[in-house]
Design goal:
4 helices; Non-ribosomal Peptide Synthetase Peptidyl Carrier Protein, Chain A; 2 strands; about 65% helix; mainly alpha
């Protein structure tokens, strides 16, 4: 069983999949940085200087000083962060769409079907005509 597991893990597909997952995580960080640091400030500027990442509905205000006894942290619904996540999703979807579209253009079109020989009907007609000539 251990040998089978080793063979499974060492196959190319599993290793390629692991590399793809690691790269996907790195790309996710790049996209998050792009959305949060480049796109959202521009969107905020066009929407009147709003900073979406700080938008929230406070359910319970913080009380006390952080790190001291009796401190209660703020409890809030951070819908601005959710808006950033939606923009992130749209950008990732668009980038994937562009990548797949470019990949599909690089694929060779299917070769045209080789012309087939005469059909069965044509062959039967030819045989009939040859038989008529022999009479």
């Amino acid at each position: 069983m251990l040998k089978e597991f080793k063979n499974f893990i060492m196959t190319g597909n599993v290793i390629e999949f692991a590399v793809a997952v690691i790269l996907a995580g790195a790309v996710g960080l790049v996209v998050n940085g792009f959305v949060n640091d480049i796109v959202m400030p521009v969107v905020g500027e066009f929407s009147g200087g709003m900073d979406f990442s700080n938008m929230k509905v406070i359910l319970t205000k913080a009380s006390g000083v952080a790190g001291e006894e009796g401190y209660i942290a703020e409890n809030a619904i951070r819908y601005g962060a959710w808006i950033n996540t939606l923009v992130n999703l749209i950008i990732v979807g668009f980038v994937l769409f562009i990548i797949i579209k470019a990949y599909n253009k690089t694929k060779k079109p299917p070769a045209p079907a080789a012309p087939s020989g005469p059909s069965e009907k044509d062959l039967l007609i030819e045989i009939r005509d040859l038989l008529k000539k022999q009479k």
